[in-house]
Amino acid sequence: MDIRVDRVLTALKGLEIKCNVPLSSLTSFRIGGPAAMVLRPHSAEDIRRTIQSCSQFGCPYCVLGNGTNVLAPDAGYPGMVIRLDTPLTTPLFVDTTVTCPAGTSLSVLARESVGMHLMGLETLSGIPGTVGGAVAMNAGAYGSEIRHIIKSVRILKSGRVLDVETKKTDFGDRTSAYSSPSVIVLSATFQLEHDDGGAKERMLETTRQRKEKQPLSLPSAGSVFKRPKGRFAGALIENCGLKGYSVGGAQVSPLHAGFIVNTGKATEKDVLDLIALIQQRVFDETGVRLEREIKLMREL
User: Can you list the domains of the chain with their CATH numbers?
Assistant: First the structure.
């Protein structure tokens, strides 16, 4: 065992930590070797202690939610994965606001908000990630983004828990000022509105469209590329004749060219090689440079 891992485990004895966990079991792509350690924290203090210990002993760490937008390395991860995919409390609804922990499923939260006769989250109901991940990357769908409805966040930064009123300028194109490892989202509060009577219908319609248009039957990490200004990545890729194109076990989805799917035995290298090929072909034929949206482990 790496001496750094051994020291971290000794310092964090008593916390819920598992060793040698396959990253393929923690990510929706179903790709990746073993993570040396995986922590499921039960409090902000668990996270603070873990970061402190990893920093003290020179052990790498990263934060992972549902792993739905991540490509994990075939070689695994040599440090600590802080897994924030389980809510520590239930969402708290107060009038038209809702506060929930980072590990809350965004889809579950959207459905619950519609059930509370509120609107604002319904078109995000099909996004499979957590609230923390959604805030960190300003998740969006069908014209709605997190920045449009978020009110405040509770974060861990430099070892301190802080409550921050958010600004729209804190959020960009699939990025935000609340991204790990420098900032870890602990919870978020959203400002919603009273239902105009159409929230449930809009939620059902976006769900229907996802099922029809997206490759949900095979492992993927969602949209591979950010949307180019005034264009659609999937359409550009399809028009370049790459729909269905494969590198190893990675394939441009025959259903939606904006997705890469794992047909069974895809590796990180397969996916990265296919991404590079797509980017080059699209640039050569259209002059558009596609920017990767999915994250690599080293970027978390």
Answer: 3-83 (3.30.43.10), 92-194 (3.30.465.10), 215-299 (3.90.78.10)
